Structure formats: structure tokens, C-alpha cells
Amino acid sequence: MKQIAPVEAVVFDLLTALLDSWSLWNRAAGSEADGLRWRRAYLELTYGCGAYRPYEDLVHEAADQAGVVASAAQALTAHWNSLQPWPEAPRVLRDLTARDVPLGVVTNCSTILGRQAADRVGVRFAAVVTSEDTGYYKPRPEPYRAALDRLGTDPARTLFVAGSPADIPGAAGVGMPVFWHNRAGLPFVADRARPLLIADTLDPLVELVP
Fold first, then answer.
1. What is the four-CA torsion angle of 186, 113, 177, 2, rounded to 10 degrees?
2. pLDDT tens across 98-109, in order?
């Protein structure tokens, strides 16, 4: 494991690192295969546009491109409050909170949906940053910097917990060390930015943050 400066705050990707949003997309699409194809289309649109366009518009556009049922996009937002955290997430985050470690989230969605999703985790966040708030989608630097500004912490001492590979260079680009919560077991493609740790669970956070 790489050596990093003592961690004074932790910022998370919300919809993948903390919440199982994949299951919701799959249910809305009608199958796992359709959900995966839809998410991939959505990610291409999101990463490609950079500047914020309404999240719901991108979800609808991606559904059209992926050829999923017309009702999928509406079903996704209608059942947004059924999002569930990964099993260990509440326990790990409560442990950090008990040690007075400030926590934040950065998420690629609208402000309303971002705050609803953050509430599903079951802990209090010192900063909830959405792409609508900042005017840009990750992995642009603006959302990560907004979280740092709200927390008032040094990037080198603020650990970012990525849920998807795109967050690794995004967060590292503003000076944050990155832990990749690689729940799906995706291969790591060598890049200029490397995570300090890759795991399929959030449990290592307990040791990463003394």
C-alpha cells in the first residue's frame, strides 16, 4: 500500500462506492443485461458532456440509445428512494463518524436526487456535492474541488473513495489520494493516476483512516 499523509476527511462517490445503484438501474430496465447496456450509454453521455445537462435528460437519452423500455427512465427516478447502501457501508461510516472524521459525497446527478440518495446511506455528511451544484460532471475537477472547499480540507489529506474507474484520475487530478472500492471486480487499466488501494469492500477504510 502506498504511504499517504494522515487522513483528515473522506469523500465518497455516492451512487457506486456507497450505494448499490446498479440493482435499481437493472430493475428499471427489466433485466441485468439491459441495465448494464443502459448505464454504459449513460456514462458515455455523462463523461462526454462535461458541463452539466439535466441528469434526468441524460438518463432518458441513454435509455433511447440503449434501446431499453420507454418507461425505464421514469421508473429509475420514481423508485430512487429504494436505493440501498452496500451492506458494510453504514457500519464503516459510523465508525469514521465516531472518530470525528468529516465525511462528504460527490455525485453525478441532480441536487434533489443527490440529497435523497445521500439520506439513504444512514449517516450525516458534512458536504453533499452534486454535478448540478457545480455545473459540471465528474471526472471534471470542479465537483471534487467543491467538496474540498466545503470541508475546508487539504487535498493531500482528504481521501477519495471511488466507485468507478473514472473517479481515480478525476480525484487524483486535484491532489486527493484515492481508494477504489471496486465492487464489481473490474480490471485496473494502467494510467498516470493509480489508486493507493483497490478492494471489493469498504472495510479497509477502518485501517486507512486512523
1. -40
2. 999 999 999 999
